[in-house]
Amino acid sequence: MISRHEHLDPQTQSAVLELIAQATDNDGVPPVAEHVLLHLRHGGDKADTHLIARIDGEVAGYAHLDLTDQVEGPSAEIVVAPKFRNRRLGHEIVRELKVIAGAKLRLWSHGDLPGARNIAEDNGFTRSRTVIQMRRSLIDPLPEIDTAIQIRTFRDGIDNKPWIDANNAAFAGHPEQSNWSLRDLEIRTKEDWFDSNGFLIAEVDSHIAAFSWTKIHGGHTHKHSDEDQEHDHDPIGELYIMGVSPAFQGRGLGYAMAIAGLRHIRHKGIFSAMLYVDADNSKAISLYTKISFQEWGRDVLYRLSRN
Fold first, then answer.
1. Is the predicted pLDDT of residue 220 greater than 80, yes or no?
2. Residue 229, by phi and psi: left (phi above 0), alpha (psi -120 to 50) or beta?
3. What is the pTM of this model?
4. What are residue 90's phi and psi, to 5 degrees?
5. Under a CB-based contact definition with an 8 Å cutoff, are residues 69 and 101 in contact?
6. What tens digit of pLDDT does each residue of 223-246 get?
7. What is the pLDDT of residue 178?
8. Which of 85, 89, 202, 224 has the highest CB neighbour count under 10 A?
9. pLDDT value at residue 112
């Protein structure tokens, strides 16, 4: 039996966390993203949708579904208890997710495990991306930035169109970051996490030459319902989107903007940073390694086949 929930009661919440812990011990990698796990510890977020699969009354499988991304489409993460695997429970959960989320459903597989790969492919999904998560501490000193590089913050309402043009040029051909529209940008600037002070722009001859858009995860006091107590999450800063317009590449702007983003994160009192980079982007990986980022894990994104 699979049931859908917008909020988890304490007993179900505890059972799901235990299920995730068992899967992590068994597989050697957490089956859900860190921010999902953090919210689960407090019963889920208001925007979350949860699928609970039970066998003989026991929580045997779980799916977290995020329906909030109007640009890329819904995304889901699935976990099945080790003792209930090989019963096609994962397939049943995926079929239910497809009914709820539709043709734009995306599935994330953390750790690129064979079981997750088989479930995705058997249900008509194909591998879309392999993404490496990299992290570094911000306790150690950060390099200085060339003072000749002019860096300022993003001006909402002024920079929107020029930034879209720079972004689309920098990420031409990228499966998710290319061909952005003004609406794609507007949706994100209206999010609670958006901070224009963390959206840094490098100008050359009055053109947007490079950018480093940061994002802070956690570290803010909030609650998920009127009945809940307020709580905090351990904060981590992310280099969310970083790019250099092709006309200005080869000038060290990527390095400078990465450092500028990290400096902003540390200025906010956060001493840990993360980023995501496609596994085939060797140039970016080389840059991030140069500034002390190390691989933390790998995630695979699956999309429904369109053939």
1. no
2. beta
3. 0.71
4. -60, -40
5. no
6. 444 444 444 456 899 999 999 999
7. 84
8. 202
9. 87
| Alpha-carbon span 241 to 200, nearest angstrom | 10
The residue-averaged pLDDT of 12-33 equals 93
Nearest partner of 284 among 259, 255, 251, 246, judged by Cα: 255
Per residue in 247-275, is it b (16+ CB within 10 Å) or e — as a string? ebeeeebbbbbbbbbbbbbbebebebbbb
Whether residue 186 is predicted with pLDDT greater than 50 in this model: the reply is yes
Number of alpha carbons in the 13 Å side-chain half-sphere of residue 196: 12
Name every residue whose Cβ is closer than 8 Å to that of residue 275 and which is 6 or more positions away in sequence: 133, 134, 135, 238, 239, 240, 242, 288, 293
* Neighbouring-strand partners of residue 239: 214
Six token digits for residue 255: 């390095």
Alpha-helical runs (H) found in the chain: 10-27, 34-40, 89-101, 114-122, 160-170, 182-189, 253-267, 282-290
Is the confidence at residue 307, as pLDDT, over 80? no
Rg (alpha carbons) of the chain, rounded to whole number: 20
